[in-house]
Structures are given as C-alpha cells and as structure tokens.
Amino acid sequence: MGPRRTGWVATALFLLAGCGGSDSFDPNDLLSECIGDWEATALVPTSPVTSSASADLIALGSTFNLNVQPSGTYTAVLIFQGLASTEIGTLSLSGGNTVVLDRTFPTASKEISTYIFKGSDRLILDGNTEFDFNFDEAPDEALAHFELVRRQDWPRSLVSRETRIANRRSCFT
C-alpha cells in the first residue's frame, strides 16, 4: 500500500498554505498563525469511489512533519514504509479557507486545497492526492484528510500582536 510520496507531501503542504506566502525570505505577517513545526496525528487517504477504502497511515506507523518559515517557505517530510520523501516550496493564501502550494522540489507544481484551524495549535487539512489502494503499484485518485498539531511555536516577536489579530480575523473568518 503506497501513496505517490510527493502527492501526500503536496496535499498537506498546500492545505496549510492558507495563511499567506512570499517570494522572498523576509517574514510574511500573514503567516503569523501558521509558522512553526507541525506533526500529523492522522493522515487518512480515502477512495472517492468507496469510502470504505481508507487507512490512517499515522496509525500504521508513518510520520509526517512540516516546517513553515516566517517567509512562507516550507519543508515537509513524509516517512512511509521506512522511506522518506521530502518536499520544499512556498505557501500562499487564495481566499477564505483555500490555500495554494507552489512546490519547487522535487518537482514544480501548484496545488489547491482547504484548511480549518481548531484553536491555535491544531489544523485540519483536506484535499486531493493519490494512493495505491489495490497494490498494483499504480496510484489511484484519493481524498486526503490530515490532522496536524503544532510541535513548536515560533517566537511571536516576529510579527506584532496587532498584525496577528488582524490576520486571524481575515484568514480564519
């Protein structure tokens, strides 16, 4: 049972992208609520054909970790069946609860998905990906559900309190 590794990483990252982005390495105030280290507590691919075809990869021993820098640059690492897959790119907001992931490594792509914050340290992500449900080594279309918790919060001094409050209102309402 194997996902297309870049698809999993891309799904989680473009989902988290909803809080802003930047083409530079300067801090982006829109990311104040998103920056830091995140760890998946659930990563569930589900077949769009039958909802009974799903598995929680974290419960099966996989790990998924995401680091979002103040500039919007991210690094994500998925470890599935003992193999690591890394992805790097930039996150950006595309209205409401829609996020855009501009992946630059390992291949360039642009992905779009949705997110919901449950408090300041829990994030629910949902979007499209691929997963090999029938073990034929060909990826099948899948819906991905991620639950992430913040492992380490970045210093809040990177952005002002007023900016964080304004961004929370615009980003999460």
Question: Can you put this structure into words, describing what you see?
Answer:
By secondary structure, this protein is mainly beta. It has one domain: Lipocalin, CATH 2.40.128. The protein has two helices and eight strands. The chain has an eight-stranded antiparallel barrel. Strand 4 and strand 5 form a beta hairpin. It is globular. Mean pLDDT is 77; it is low at 13-24, 156-160 and 169-173.
Q: Which labels suit this protein?
A:
single chain, 173 residues, mainly beta, eight-stranded antiparallel beta barrel, 14% helix, globular, disordered C terminus
Q: What level of helicity do the residues show?
A: 10-25%
Number of helices: 2
Task: Show unreliable segments.
Answer: 13-24, 156-160, 169-173
Biggest β-sheet: count, sense, barrel? 8 strands, antiparallel, barrel
The global form is globular
Rounded mean pLDDT is: 77
Radius of gyration: 15 Å
Number of domains: 1
Given this structure, which CATH class is correct?
Mainly Beta
Strand content: 35-45%
- The CATH architecture category equals Beta Barrel
- Named CATH topology: Lipocalin
Distance between the termini: 38 Å
Query: What structural class do the secondary elements suggest?
Result: mainly beta
Order of helices and strands: HEEEEEEEEH
* Strand arrangement across the biggest beta sheet: 1-2-3-4-5-6-7-8
Q: How many strands appear in the DSSP assignment?
A: 8
